[in-house]
């Protein structure tokens, strides 16, 4: 399938889940909105769960590139700012929160690929920091990203409050410098 | 309503949402399982969202008492261990993850009360730590609990991987001592 057509399908998928929830997402609806034949979509993705799982990882709308600012602190602040945009600023937030929320209720919609794919790209931030001597090799990068991304999720999705100014900087300072 | 009857209603509510998802939760189903008349339930909680929101905060099954071990580190490790049990060990995890996941897709089911209620009780951990001289008063307690609870959520719910031994201790060490 042409990459542009594929992006139109992912885009339709994400917008439908944002508008109607996972229950309202159907391959028929995606076909209608993207103008691609339903049987063609089914040939590539055997279910709506598979389609939404692929959209989470491959849609340009949720595209992710690991920041490279020259310092670990700068990279992590940029990383957290990206998660803040993803989870609290439309249009990305409308689709990301709806799709990730659906993944909690519907395990067949496998969100693990989304997180594994992002983490594979986040790793380089930590590898560069170790090479620059900013970070001990024994530090677990997954723990660091889960602390930071998790704080954004809890604060903006569950508590439903706007993030205070400087949230990214403060969260990164807590994890890099410690609060104790 | 007698507190015991109320707990039976909350219990039925949480078990139904764990078994059938939010879409499958109905006040009728709760009435049937708890043996309480439907109109009585509606008199107390006007909708299934209100009922599940109340169950999240008031059900004994999800009961929460802030740990008091004598040190900030001990309290936070115990706090994280409690979140791990809540989000990854049945029976609490079955109901907590289903109910919180539903809250993402259905904002009318207000999860903010659940988080506000827990935070009101978590605060004392930090107040005691400040009095003992273990923590500067300028540290934001909500940032600390959101980092820690968020890491458990991402790791066990979204990544769907078992938490490694010592996860609570390592997560608390990262936030108290810093990784940088």
UniProtKB/TrEMBL annotation, chains A, B:
Q: Give the source's domain of life in one word.
A: Bacteria
Residue range(s) of DNA binding per entry: 26-45
**What InterPro entries does the annotation carry?**
HTH-type_TetR-like_transc_reg, HTH_TetR, TetR_C
Domain HTH tetR-type, residue spans = 3-63
What sections of the protein cross the membrane? none
Which Pfam family, any one of them, does this sequence belong to?
Answer: TetR_N
Q: What keywords tag this UniProt record?
A: DNA-binding, Transcription, Transcription regulation
Listed name of the protein: TetR/AcrR family transcriptional regulator
Upper classification of the organism: Bacteria, Bacillati, Actinomycetota, Actinomycetes, Streptosporangiales
């Amino acid at each position: 399938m042409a990459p542009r057509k594929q992006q139109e399908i992912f885009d339709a998928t994400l917008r439908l889940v944002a508008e109607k929830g996972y229950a309202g997402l159907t391959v028929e609806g995606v076909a209608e909105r993207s103008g691609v034949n339903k049987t063609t979509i089914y040939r590539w993705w055997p279910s709506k769960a598979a389609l939404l799982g692929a959209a989470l990882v491959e849609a340009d709308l949720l595209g992710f590139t690991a920041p490279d600012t020259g310092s670990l602190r700068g990279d992590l602040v940029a990383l957290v700012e990206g998660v803040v945009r993803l989870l609290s600023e439309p249009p990305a937030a409308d689709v990301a929160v709806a799709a990730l929320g659906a993944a909690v209720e519907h395990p067949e919609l496998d969100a693990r690929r989304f997180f594994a794919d992002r983490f594979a790209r986040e790793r380089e931030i930590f590898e560069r920091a170790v090479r620059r001597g900013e970070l001990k090799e024994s530090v677990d990068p997954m723990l660091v990203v889960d602390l930071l991304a998790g704080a954004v999720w809890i604060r903006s999705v569950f508590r439903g409050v706007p993030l205070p100014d400087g949230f990214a900087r403060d969260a990164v300072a807590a994890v890099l410098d410690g609060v104790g």
